[in-house]
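Each field is set out underneath.
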Amino acid sequence: MSVSFDRVPCTVITGFLGAGKTTLIRNLIEKLDGKRVAIIVNEFGDVGIDGDVLQGCGIESCPDENIIELANGCICCTVADDFVPAIDQILAREPRVDHILIETSGLALPKPLVQAFQWPAVKARVTVDAVVAVVDGVALAEGRVANDHHALEAQREADSSIDHDDPIEEVFEDQIACADMIVLTKTDLLDQAGLAAAKGRLQAHLPRAVKVVPAANGAVDPAVLIGLGLAVEDDIENRKTHHDDELDHDHDDFDSFVVDLPAVSNADELATRISATAKAENVLRIKGFIDVANKPMRLQVQAVGSRVNHYFDRAWAPGEKRLSRLVVIGEKGIDRDAIERMLSA
């Protein structure tokens, strides 16, 4: 008697820096009862912050060994080198996984990744259940696709002849162009007018009809996003993006580096310093973990532009080296020396 195995469905979760992808995934795996889940996390930067947030969460259906971090570069540029081996590794797990969540870096273009699912060695084993784009509701409500592009948007709105050729704008448009579902995050921070403005701006970017799901703190019922069964790889050529005519692309418009800090004595003072640094030096994102002196818990820091969130996420493990390390992400040419001085002050 022959045995037939169905292809394992994969959900590609894309979105700009700080939009809330990791928070959404954490909430999904907590609610995916009865499904054994694996996660591929594509970091941008030298430190696996997002993977660290997901690991150690104690969710039985998604053990730490089922979380694979890819930090060798943007997954859409390194599909053959990184993505395919990660799929091989996951599919070799016993018991067999029921669903794979793929969190792309904020700079990734989903189309090249989905196209890889057309490769014969991949297509026979996995399929793209859906592409989910996570977008920042607060930034959209304020007229931006990212948190700190006031000048760009003011110029764009004032001059209707300006083409939308900013790299961040293009990345955003390419992500939602491939989406089957869009999660509009941080809606708890918006009033009705702000929510309407965010949805209106999003609709203006959408090339086709796609459902938009409002969310606060990443809380979305998995039934809305998981199990759509769309086999997106069979339709991806119909989703037009800015990069369709390019043989290759790069992300040279962005810089990323790590800043190591000593232990801090006051978390709020550090948050103020991070906010001031991001505002002064046009930083897109700062994220990492901090050692707060005389505290048994590790402090997690997430900053989008000058907006900073911080909280103690878990206790330092026995024997674990207590480090304070931040990943800084910004557009090409940000002043690394100035940023390091301000963060270390």
Q: What stands out?
A: The CA atoms of residues 26 and 329 lie 23 Å apart. The longest strand covers residues 126-136.
